[in-house]
Amino acid sequence: MILLNVFAVVLPCVLASRTRGSSGTLVDFTDPKVQGHLDALVRMAQSCVIKVRATPKDVRAYFTNSSPVSRSGQCFATCMLEQSDIINHGKVNRDLLVHLAGLVNGKNSRVVRKLNSVSRLCLDSISGMTDRCQLASTYNDCLNENMIEFAFPLDIAEEAVRKMPFHLIQPNLPQEMKHPNY
């Protein structure tokens, strides 16, 4: 990642705090610290939308912890995880994922303890996969399925989707810009 912000961890579940928000999740989205992480996450997503030509459905699926519905949705998840260095050269850096979650939530927080065990389980779900987009998407799906209590509320997810530069994706972009390395 650490392209944008060391705290801008890709996965919505990592932004959880110890208080229960109005949406029923364990996330306090009014916390300025969490807001800063969300802003960085949105900037990463904007870049990934352009790189993989993600659709609004792709981005919505990502931010609502749903499985991608298309190849571009899988590659969008890949781009997000790779920009965060959570996945690098097809390998998951589980230690970095847990470390970044600890920076936001505290090393001994509930989210970090759960993420530590769930992330190990999710490594099994990608064993033997070689396709980058499938690997990252499957890993992300596994984390989301097992950490649903830390998900973005729908209104926050929709706001993130509204901030995406879909208007910049033109059908006449040069081929190398359409799917660079995805």
Brief write-up:
With 182 residues, the chain is mainly alpha-helical.
Helix-strand blueprint:
Layout: H1 32-52, H2 56-63, H3 71-83, E1 87-88, E2 91-92, H4 94-105, H5 110-125, H6 132-146, H7 154-162, H8 175-178
Antiparallel strand pairs: 1-2
Helix pairs in contact: 1-3, 2-3, 2-7, 3-6, 4-5, 5-6
What can you tell me about this protein's structure?
This protein is mostly helical and 182 residues long. It has a single domain (12-169), classed as Recoverin, domain 1, CATH 1.10.238.20. The chain is built from eight helices and two strands, in the order H-H-H-E-E-H-H-H-H-H. Strands 1-2 form a two-stranded antiparallel ribbon. The longest helix has 21 residues, at 32-52. The protein starts with 31 loop residues before the first helix and ends with a helix. Residues 1-25 and 173-178 have low confidence and may be disordered. Keywords: Signal. Residues 1-16 form the signal peptide. Pfam families: PBP_GOBP (PF01395).
Q: Main β-sheet: number of strands, strand sense, barrel status?
A: 2 strands, antiparallel
Q: Would you tell me the structural class of the helices and strands?
A: mainly alpha
Q: What proportion of the residues is helical, as a percent range?
A: 40-55%
Coarse shape: globular
| Low-confidence parts | 1-25, 173-178
Q: What is the C-alpha radius of gyration, as a whole number of Å?
A: 15 Å
How many structurally independent domains? Answer: 1
Descriptors for this entry?
disordered N terminus, 182 residues, single chain, two-stranded antiparallel sheet, 2 strands, mainly alpha
